[in-house]
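User: Hey, my collaborator sent me this sequence without any context and asked if I could get a structure. I don't really work with proteins. Can you help?
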Amino acid sequence: QVQLVESGGGSVQAGGSLRLSCAASGFASGNRYLAWFRQVPENEREAVARIATYDSVTYVAGSVKGRFTISLDSAGTTVYLQMNSLKPEDTAVYYCAAGLIRSLRSEDFPYWGQGTQVTVSS
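Assistant: No problem. I've predicted the 3D structure and written it out in structure-token form, which is a compact way to encode the shape of the chain:
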């Protein structure tokens, strides 16, 4: 059974930093992609960053490029999202997701964490 367990959300002032973690378990061997999405009420989930577990190639959305970094631990089972220079518009529920397709569409990721709230105040 695939499980994704997130941690690290919270409240911070604009300009501050947070690091989100997501521990993934239950995968069979094989290439996969781990990603972070975010969602605000009444909006669709937006891909923030993605990393391939087999070569660590990353994608980072333009809205967060230069501020957010996605990375993997050496075992390839925990993915991090380091968020620096946070802005109020980064406020959202952040979700960890896992899938087998190199995609940025939420529907291509069958496995999801429970979500963690990030709130950035001005």
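In plain terms: The radius of gyration is 13 Å. You can pass these tokens on to your collaborator as they are.
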